[in-house]
Design brief:
Layout (H helix, E strand, L loop, with lengths): L4 H19 L3 H9 L9 H12 L2 H12 L8 H16 L5 H15 L4 H16 L1
Helix pairs in contact: 1-2, 1-3, 1-5, 2-3, 4-5, 4-7, 5-6, 5-7, 6-7
Length: 135
């Protein structure tokens, strides 16, 4: 999987959001840690930090929307898939410059790479429902 530009930012962000969920790390801690990663120089670092901040400031609202769209409590979701959904939902809501198909395709690829077997279908379905409501 490509690890540069925005795609690379989303990939590292998936890892950072997983760490946030299992370890409770703050946006500042994660930003500091991941900016020291050798891959950070090749990604869109501004986009990584922007999304990290947007997501961690809004997880409660994101979770409420995910619960409605998915029909289950996000706290019971696989943490990697939940992080991917946070990224996709934040992009759908706040980054209108990115086409819906790109957001969903990127999320599905992340879920295939990091999530549980078949989890990409769940991510696709949830983001499709949310895209219909938001765009």
């Amino acid at each position: 999987m490509q690890t540069s530009g925005r795609r690379g930012a989303r990939r590292l962000l998936t890892q950072a959001l997983y760490q946030h969920q299992v370890g409770g790390h703050s946006a500042a801690e994660l930003g500091e840690q991941f900016s020291a990663d050798s891959k950070f120089a090749s990604i869109d670092s501004k986009y990584f930090l922007l999304l990290l901040e947007e997501i961690l400031l809004d997880t409660e609202s994101l979770d409420r929307q995910l619960e409605t769209a998915a029909g289950r409590d996000p706290k019971h979701m696989d943490p990697l898939e939940r992080g991917v959904l946070w990224i996709g939902l934040t992009e759908l809501q706040s980054h209108e410059d990115i086409p819906t198909r790109v957001i969903i395709n990127e999320a599905v690829e992340l879920a295939k790479g990091f999530g549980a077997e078949g989890g990409h279908r769940f991510v696709n379905g949830v983001l499709d429902r949310l895209a219909t409501q938001l765009r």
